[in-house]
Amino acid sequence: FDAAERLRNKVAALRAEGCPPATVSIGLAELRRGDELDLALARADAALYAAKRAGRNRSMTASLHERLVAA
After folding, report:
1. Distance (Å, rounded) from C-alpha 26 to C-alpha 49?
2. How many CA atoms lie within 13 A of 16 on its CB side?
3. What Rg, from alpha-carbon coordinates, does the chain have?
4. Residue 63: what are its φ and ψ, rounded to 5°?
5. Running DSSP on this structure, what letter comes out for residue 18?
6. What is the pLDDT of residues 27-38, one digit of tens each?
7. Which residues contact 14 (CB under 8 A, 6 or more apart)?
8. pLDDT per residue over 2-42, tens digit each?
9. Contact 24/11 with Cβ under 8 angstroms?
10. CA angle 33-69-4, nearest 5°?
């Protein structure tokens, strides 16, 4: 998560004349014991779209997204 946040902040700090500010939304998921890669990627994808729905320019982990959906 820390690496994703550092990347997101570095991109947000970039400035190019005549271009709007760049933003990055990142979805993260752990590969759990017994997981197929496709399942972990699906969780990361769901976290990415949750980050975009939450206002973009943020990182979200699949476990956080799963807790929000379950609430």
Report:
1. 9
2. 7
3. 14
4. -65, -40
5. T
6. 999 988 888 999
7. 21, 22
8. 999 999 999 999 999 999 999 999 999 998 888 899 989 99
9. yes
10. 60
Spatial separation of the C-alpha atoms in residues 30 and 62, rounded to whole Å = 8
Cβ contacts of residue 57 below 8 Å, gap of 6+?
A: 8, 12, 23, 24, 25
Structure tokens at 67: 């807790």
Q: H/E/C letters for each residue in 48-66?
A: HHHHHHCCCCCEEEHHHHH
From CA 55, how far away is CA 57, in angstroms rounded?
7
The tokens describing 17, both together, are: 């004349």
What distance in Å separates the CA atoms of residue 64 and residue 19, rounded to the nearest whole number? 32
Residue in this structure with the two tokens 């496709």, named with its chain if needed = 38
